[in-house]
Write a structure and sequence with these properties.
The protein is an alpha+beta fold and 138 residues long. It has 4 helices and 7 strands. 31% of the residues lie in helices and 31% in strands.
């Protein structure tokens, strides 16, 4: 996998393009997740792939197979109230990592569709978290 050399600059451009175009083309599962920094308390926005799951959205904290969880994951564990931007919709949500049998079931389903997550997991010791984003009640 070829990752951009300056990932922060790449992500800033993806965020700018997403917001300028009102999202992405239909069928592309990309969202913007805004979390509150675990240490700084500042808002941080990250673009990422998602998997629809009924009334909620699942995001996978693979960090492209890095040995550490992505920063956004640490942020939402500390502050689970987040903002989700998907094409045509922006809303507040509550994040919670999946555990146990539910996580295993979802992992099997996700990796059945997106086998590259198996490659990410094969190269690291940490278990890749799956996080459910559930729309907050209005």
């Amino acid at each position: 996998m070829n990752l951009p050399q300056d990932m922060l600059a790449h992500n800033r451009q993806v965020i700018a393009d997403f917001r300028a175009n009102g999202g992405v083309e239909p069928g592309r599962n990309l969202l913007l997740l805004t979390t509150t920094g675990a240490r700084t308390g500042e808002e941080r926005t990250s673009p990422m792939m998602f998997v629809p799951d009924g009334d909620r959205i699942l995001v996978i904290a693979s960090n492209a197979g890095a040995v550490r969880h992505p920063n956004w994951y640490h942020n939402l564990v500390a502050h689970p109230d987040v903002t989700v931007e998907v094409t045509g919709d922006t809303y507040r949500a509550r994040a919670h990592p999946l555990e146990g049998e539910e996580r295993e079931r979802k992992w099997a389903s996700i990796t059945g569709q997106f086998a590259f997550f198996l490659d990410h997991q094969a190269n690291i010791e940490r278990t890749i978290p799956i996080v459910a984003l559930e729309r907050a009640s209005q």
